[in-house]
Amino acid sequence: MRAAYAEGxxxxxxxxxxxxxxxxxxxxxxxxxRAAAARTxxxxxxxxxxxxxxxxxxxxxxxxxxxxxxKELTVDPQRRxxxxxxxxxxxxxxxxARPYGLRLPPDPSSSGFAxxxxxxxxxxxxxxSVRYGSVRRWVEAVExxxxxxxxxxxxxxxxxxxQFSLTADSRRxxxxxxxxxxxxxxxxxxxxxxxxxxELDLLIGSEGTLAIVTAVDWRLxxxxxxxxxxxxxxxxxxxxxxxxxFLLSLDPSAVELLDRTLLQLIPDAPDVAGLLLVExxxxxxxxxxxxxxxxxxxLKETLAxxxxxxxxxxxxxxxEVRRLASPALARLPETRRSLQIIEDxxxxxxxxxxxxxxxxxxxxxxGVPVAIFGHAGDxxxxxxxxxxxxxxxxxxxxxxLYAEVCDLLxxxxxxxxxxxxxxxxxxxxxxxxxxxEIMALFVDVKRAYDPxxxxxxxxxxxxxxxxxxxxxxxxxxxxxxxxxxxxxxxxVERTAGWAIPKPELAR
Length: 507
Ligand SMILES: Cc1cc2nc3c(=O)[nH]c(=O)nc-3n(C[C@H](O)[C@H](O)[C@H](O)COP(=O)(O)OP(=O)(O)OC[C@H]3O[C@@H](n4cnc5c(N)ncnc54)[C@H](O)[C@@H]3O)c2cc1C
Prior knowledge:
Helices cover 33% and strands 18% of the residues. It is of the alpha+beta class.
């Protein structure tokens, strides 16, 4: 059972000391009380699909994905709210809201398995976040179990409680030091907290380090009736610098990039440097088609490839190329693993072309193939490193790639995580992006909520022995677990089977 919880998505394998499957709020409170008394670390966990190692650790895994007392789901169409227990997935919320013409607008690709607790904890986002923001904007309230075992409900507009407050000096620092990127899931959102004065903004994106989320009140939004879109290919990455802002001026609901590094893996994909998939949602079909026409006309001079879709079915065909990306990565030979080590950087829009070019150059220098794709409209791309593990030197090459891309992000005014969080993977580089004073404020936040440091220690605030590429699930150093469990975990990764209850893997 412990082995079945030793891996999440992402690169790590850490065998926990124990696994807890709390059945309800009281059970969870008792567990937190015992952990506090014994100083045992607790690792809150949903589906385990998080990429940054926040869902694994050496303490006790607290799996809330199984349902139990955390599977409530009710929709209030009048107030446009859904109340969801921590285990409820984005897809389940949307299935329940659709009959009322409503939806949860941010659409993580992991909607089928990402839990409400996990999405709030990472401030998850998706292709549509370019228009609708990350989940932060859609959280009305959370129910939490705090580190002292107290159960609280924290609402939007309720103020900052008495847990943590900012001085005028700290506010000035935050205004100066926080990178100005379209999205971020990098450390405690002190900038949002300073702006709203809401404690809720500290809890969203706190990656299980401040409290355990047991339920979420989600705000819902009407589903726009019409949609159209286009696939736009560019011969040169430099064109992105003007194309993306132009597309944003047309109010798209998605602007997704597939870079050549990824297109090469997909059969029959267009032969271009980068492909933008653009979607427009509108109140009328004519308006949606009109926006597609404006996009294609406005970029005529720079496009090497264009294909349009005037309705939902056409759009789905057009986006098929994107869906083929995951199976293509899963089909790679077993020695060529897809490792998420530099996978979530987000930069100011004007720097996107330079970021993608810089990642490619660094990957070439280190001889590590990469696949780059993601949310161009937010200046945010995912990078999967695809090292060949059968040869020597791959670990050193990955370490250098990690360091170079970190330097690049700092230079471009970016953040290391646009939507996946800091986790263990990036805890030790956070200070480079924010400086020591903001890092000290992060430590103050952690102390205020979790003075005994029992909630996910080593996540966001780095452990003393932090090493981003230690405890890998691949290579000779990988922790020993039973072969059958290792094979099942590998299959979960290959098929994105994160919805499978982990106790089943151990049976
Ligand atoms: C194929 C694939 C596609 C993905 N696509 C996207 C995408 O489009 N957008 C995106 O944002 N992410 C994406 N992800 C990453 C992942 O799905 C999200 O980070 C998701 O929000 C994690 O949810 P989870 O339930 O799996 O949480 P877990 O992985 O179990 O946990 C993630 C973090 O949240 C904390 N946590 C979990 N539950 C709780 C809780 N109840 N209380 C407090 N803390 C908690 C954990 O401690 C950990 O730090 C993708 C992952 C995969 C494998």
